[in-house]
Amino acid sequence: MAKSLNRVQLIGNLGKDPELRTTAGGQNVCSVSIATSDVYKDKNGNQQETTEWHSVVFWDKLAEIAHQYLRKGKKVYLEGRIKYRQYEKDGQTRYATDIVVQNMIMLDGSRSDSSADSHTGYSNDSGSSMGETVSEHIAPEIDDVPF
Question: What is the pLDDT of residue 108?
Fold first, then answer.
């Protein structure tokens, strides 16, 4: 069987402060939206900018770290995978696309004190060489999200 790849890399700014919740199974989940922008010239030579919004989900220890250190407007680098899901709301089936984060580097500083590095990385992968490592974990199904 051939291998496949589901990998996303984003550098963007948080659109709101992270929201931390706990699933019925006791796992922490943190959600936030990230804005990425693209600048281009239109057919008249005028510079244009478009912004894409991405729904981002952190699990377990990485969710706690994101909730503690990320704030609206901060720049962050994220690596993860795309997850599509559907859910019922008000009797209608709705669809969502999320980025499930596996690695994160805070680009605007990680802590409120001035002695912290300006680039601190966190990962759900054990053995990562970036900053502090979070214990290895396999994200639960997104259907477990309590929202």
Answer: 80
